Amino acid sequence: MLTWIQQGLSVTCLLGVAAFASAQDDLKQYAQSWTGLFGQQKIGVFIQKITPTQIQGYSVVGHNTRPFQGTVHAEDGIYRITADEPMTQPSDGKFTFVLDPKFPNRITGEWMSQDPKIDAKQFGLAKRSCEAGRQVGEYAGSQRVLKGDELQTSPWELSIMRNEIYARHGYAFANKDMAVYFAEQDWYIPCSQNVKKKLTTLEKQNIKRLEKAEKYAKTVDWGR
Q1: Distances (CA, A) of 133 to 13, 111, 208
Q2: Backbone angles phi, psi at 90, to 5 degrees
């Protein structure tokens, strides 16, 4: 009788280990960077560590970077996660994430602030790299020296051209207009408040030329 019990316990333990290993395989693919609409802006979600029981990472919205950590629960092959921000800022809150291994390129969820005056936000996240590449976007500021006639346009367009260079490197915009504009670009993900070290010599050159052009363009009457 004791031998049968011991064998039963051994089988149970082996099944438990196998289930844990399977869950670990499901979840390790999520330890990367994700983005999606978060109200009018975009959010960057960076999962640094995830196991069948715990999650740890941080999020970036505008110039606000907040860590989170929490617990993972499996239910019918779907992983449901509850993760808290530190609650040291009035706007801190709680994330809920839903991970379905059948759709490994998508995370859905909700964020709720501890401040009842701040609306809850639902979101869908997709995988994105912080380095979008030189080819993305409408302008060639990361590919070649911009031509003189390209700089003869409105202050708004010049600002977009300049900030697009930063956006390609995952710059998180504090300026709401820029944050909302680039939130509409599928390739964009907010990653960092400082990307200066990532800029190429060409990009720095174009940024200086665009800044000068913007300054001049503000003196021109673009309404006629």
Answers
A1: 47, 30, 20
A2: -55, -30
- Amino acid, single-letter form, for residue 80: R
Whether 58 maps to a domain, the answer reads: yes
Let me know if residue 22 belongs to a domain.
Answer: no
pTM: 0.87
Average pLDDT rounded to a whole number, residues 125-129: 96
Look at the chain and report how many structural domains it folds into: 2
Rounded to whole angstroms, the Cα distance separating 199 from 134 reads 11
Strand partners of residue 55: 50, 70
| 80 and 161 share one domain | no
User: What are the C-alpha distances in Å from 157 to residues 41, 160, 163, 175?
Assistant: 20, 5, 10, 15
Give the domain range for residue 115: 28-127
Handedness of CA 216, 179, 67, 100 (dihedral sign): negative
Is the pLDDT at 17 greater than 80? The verdict is: no
